[in-house]
Write a structure and sequence with these properties.
With 250 residues, the chain is an alpha/beta fold. It is built from 7 helices and 8 strands. It has an 8-stranded mixed β-sheet, with helices on both faces. The longest helix is centred in the C-terminal third of the chain and has 18 residues. The termini are far apart.
Length: 250
Amino acid sequence: MCFEFDSLPPVPAISGAAVSHADLVLEARDGNRFAAFLATPEEPSGVGVVILPDVRGLYRFYEELALRFAERGHTAIAIDYFGRTAGAAKRDDDFPYREHTAKTTPEGIQADVAAAVERLRSLGARSVFTVGFCFGGRNSWLAAAGGHGLAGAIGFYGMPGERDGAPGPTQRAGELEAPILALQAGDDQNITPEHNAAFEQALSDAGVEHELVVYEGAPHSFFDRKQAEFAEASGDAWSRALAFLEQHAR
């Protein structure tokens, strides 16, 4: 399962970091208006991060994660997926996200990513990355084929293979135009070692710069402060994500 609504990123806040934040409504090229959360550092690094949540869309976990990126100098926008079917207003924990997730399309998600990328660039971000989790991990990697000019795409426990007849990052590896970081859970009940091996092979065959890390014994959604027994895996994954941003920033 994905994070509980009261979960928090297993990332320490930086005391005294000068960060501002705001709720946004962004507009995609197809006219869709959707909710987003912006976190801005006082002294930006020039890196922008688009955060793609799990299947439940935008909620506190991802707003907090945006703040953690901003505390480290990176301007971050966490986006919602459901503007087309649920509007851009705040939602409660009873929101029936599954029926809305089923109505999303890869094209719609990438249109929303494009709007977030554009906003980050308007704020001075020279290098823009996507970072996604579960459903968002898959769509983060697919964003590297979205024509956004990304500097890199990071996914935590995303499904790389075909799903419901739709090709995944494995099948579209030849279209990916940015380096890939995949941070996978070794004890994931749905994403198998075979899925990960096929993804890595497809990236290699396509000549895509990449790193795929599997945290043995870690479950899906291990990146959660509640999962104290996987703190080491979470810490390593966060360090790798930050290093990836630094390595590929232009």
